UniProtKB/TrEMBL annotation:
The keyword Hydrolase does not apply. The lineage of its organism: Bacteria, Bacillati, Cyanobacteriota, Cyanophyceae, Nostocales. Residues 161-576 form the Glycosyl hydrolase family 13 catalytic domain. Its cofactor is Ca(2+). This is Alpha-amylase. Keywords: Metal-binding, Signal. It comes from Calothrix parietina FACHB-288. It holds the Pfam family Alpha-amylase.
Amino acid sequence: MRYFDEYCEVHLDPTIAPDNWVFRTNEKISIKFGVHLSRNPDYGQIIYELNDGQGYGDVDRITTETESVNENGYKMFSIILPPIGNGGGYQYRLGYVDTDGIEHTSERGQFIFVCDEAPRSIAEIPFEFLGYVNHQPLYGPKPKLGMTPSPQNWSARLFYSIIIDRFARSADNSRAGMSAVKYDPSSPHASHGGTIRGVIEQIDYLKSLGIRAIILSPVYVNAPDGYHGYHPIHLLMVDPRLGTLQCLRELVKTAHEADIAVILDVVNNHIADSINWEEYGGPPGGEFKYVQGDDTAVMPYPIEARNTSLFHGPEYTDMVNQRLFGFLEDWRTETTYVRQLLIQHLKYWIAETDIDGFRYDSARHVGLDFWEPCVEEISRYASYLGKKNFLQIAEHAGSTHEEVLEYNSAKFTNLIDYPTYYAIKYSLHDGNWLGGLADYFCGFLAPSQAYHAGWQNNIMFLDNQDTTRILHQFLSRVKNIDDSRVRLHFGLACLILGPQIPSIYQGTEQEFSGALGLHQKPDTGEWIGHDCYVREDMFENPACVWEFGPINRKTFEPYHQNHPTFKLIRQLAEIRRQNPLIHSGTRTLLCSRNNGLWCVLIHGTGDEPPLFVAMNLGAAPTFEETFKIPHWYGDFSGVDMLINTAAGVFNLVEGGIRIKLPAFAFVLGRLL
């Protein structure tokens, strides 16, 4: 029994709420609680908010049945909530009416979901013997829908990273608040109501931008502070505030029809803060906060996760085994049991959704003893399903290549290239010289050591959900938006036409300029770094008053497509898609003048026309009357201009190429 204020609540019965917080449509939703006799309760009440997930909501109260008086002096009540359809949910609070007819309601709320699709246990997933792959037996769920073969041209695609909660609200916005996650559009630290349906409704926007692969933030049911998806409490269920499993399937199908691949972000390192360890007042070995009576906590799903021995306690302080950020419960991924559980949950999401890859969050905080068998097994399973090029992207945020290369033996198909990002970031201290971006474009930032899948297969970015926006990097040095935009366009050209697989973050195309900031804890006054200020809403949300308001203020109307930055990205994406030399050719630096002029030839071994790039790395205009390309690259009679930024231009003249470049101009053409 859990006791709080004047109430008690039966909370350790797995057949009733709140111990069970995910019900089937054919199950009765029962609640049992009591009110102390000193409060003179006449009868009990449940005050609830109902959302059926189809657009219908209701707020009501229902009278309970009186059962008995227990030995501790509490009058006990019971109730069965009205049935609700699959995909719906309740938020409820306990209450009572005293003998004077006065109503009382607890301030503490609970949530209940009704979901027929989500397994509550790994054992509910029908794993079968599927045959032999790579001479080893393979087990896994047989898909319930058709599987789409993997794209053959990952390197030609522009990736786009999405935080679902902040990307797009669906037209009816009917799922707001349907979650343990706090819904408060005015707070930068809470859910703002973005949904999977909202992403579906913006597929045409993404296709128009030139996006051909999206990376979705995690869809798990999350703890109250997990608007972003990285604090899971149920590994096998879509958070109702985001949508349903069927909705996720529809998103993947719609994206595939638009030739957009879908990568799902998954969390194998941790679950949400759930355990009271001995150091924090729990018993030896720790105990789940819910069991100890914490009404803000729940027992995690799947039920196989409900054992504290599966997690590392706070005595572990190394990179791999520590509790991430000091509070997220770290899986003992070195154990066979945990390893199998997590791999099984990954197979479940592939079979149920037809996704094209995983982004593995916090990869460096999980040991190779997990990643090596995991990556191999997921590759075998995906291959069996016809996804021969299923992506397994590791988010290893190491600052040096040496750190990241330590994970080579895991054989990830791609890594998010933080070391190269940091090299570019540090090169931007001088806002009047973009040499770091040019070095990247030429391939000079490639490490001397070899990545398992090759440096060129790494995912490259200029900003993401954990970093200050690239436009802010320029604005903080240059101040003027027009001058900053010119530099932004130079950077985007170097990124999207660069040697690695390019990825942009939602809002970059709309010139978002947020920055990492400081947040003061209201309870302790402690100042901590916070990333909410780089997670601006793509949709209109005037309710949110950002602490750093000016940098989070939109430049354009939401999803605006008729401005230079959006158009530039679209052009660059199309150039990359149509020109294999961009991702497979050799990049030769033909000149690097002190005045900022760099000329680069991208060429292959066949008869395909080479690509010629002229760029100005500096703040002063440059002019070259007759730049000569060495004769061994061939003779050229014309040029097909593909892209120019900042009104840069070059053209063939007798004796060479005439080049005229304003500050930070980037020009690319095909030589004929």
